[in-house]
Amino acid sequence: MAPSVADIPEAEQSPILLMKRNVIPATNGTYDVSENYEGDYRFAPIEEAQVSRAMIKRYFNMMYERAISDVVIVGAGSAGLSCAYHLGKSRPDLKITIIEANVAPGGGAWLGGQLMTPMVVRKPADRFLTELGVPFEDEGPFVVVKHAALFTSTILSKVLAMPNVVMMNATAVEDLIIREDFQGRQRVSGVVTNWTLVALNHDTQSCMDPNVITAPVVVTATGHDGPMGAFSAKRLVSAGLLKELGNMRGLDMNRAEPAIVNGTREVAPGLIMTGESFCNSKYLAQVSREKIQGWNFPSTMGQTAWVLLLAR
Prior knowledge:
This protein is α/β, with parallel strands linked by helices and 312 residues long. It has helices at residues 15-21, 48-65, 78-90, 126-132, 148-160, 196-199, 231-238, 253-263, 283-287, 299-308; strands at 26-28, 31-33, 71-74, 96-99, 119-122, 137-138, 142-145, 165-168, 171-180, 186-195, 211-214, 217-220, 265-268, 271-273. It has one domain (70-308): FAD/NAD(P)-binding domain. The chain has 10 helices and 14 strands. The strands form 4 sheets. Strands 8-4-3-12-14-13 form a 6-stranded mixed β-sheet, with helices on both faces. The protein has a 3-stranded antiparallel β-sheet with strand order 5-7-6. Helix 3 runs parallel beside helix 5, helix 3 packs parallel to helix 10 and helix 8 packs parallel to helix 10. The longest helix has 18 residues, at 48-65. It is globular and about 65 Å long. The model is unreliable at 282-312 (pLDDT under 50).
């Protein structure tokens, strides 16, 4: 049985711990702080209102500045984050705004199929994992990441570190801004947003009006049909820009994933559809020689399609 920390001789204790035990309270400006873990750890003083003001100032400055964006990405799952990574890296001049309905971004990419943790990625998408620095085991035609969260947390941290990318999570897209362009075509020109909790409670409260973000390009990566999934595809139908939705069909990884990756495109002026949301679009049928409108597939292998998708 290992001895308690108190019983370990000082020479065997961590050099970092020894350094912190001997720390001298430092004065940073007018604030006396101490990083002493033997009962004398002291934070700089703070007022509760300072916390509120620090968050409000930055968040609402971001909302003000991003009310006019260059690209809006709807959904921060694998497809949306991969799109933001590639676009943010290749075009640092663009203001890229990600809208995520959930509190926690990442979509279904925190786990593999049937809530198991490993993530399977078919080659050549392993090259993207290598670029991100995500380790994996090589199984020949595919590779395995030991935990899907390793990929998601890595790409999420890299995307959010980009100065030209911001994310508004717990924010839902309730509608699309659709205008007539100079050619007389109906064009998607931005999104209508609201807090997700508000969007889910319109039937329980009085009118709670939304906000807007304009952008010449909107990328929808909201996943397949569900509570928040395939939103843009469904809205295109009701707006008359898409005749009908495609249907999810039986599983076939060898046909489904290439069809989605190769089918990523502008499905309506100003709107690019990517990832599993594309399964609900009639355009998937045009990509497949067999005229199949959509297949469902588990996220363990489906990650491959999502990882490769980016705004063109």
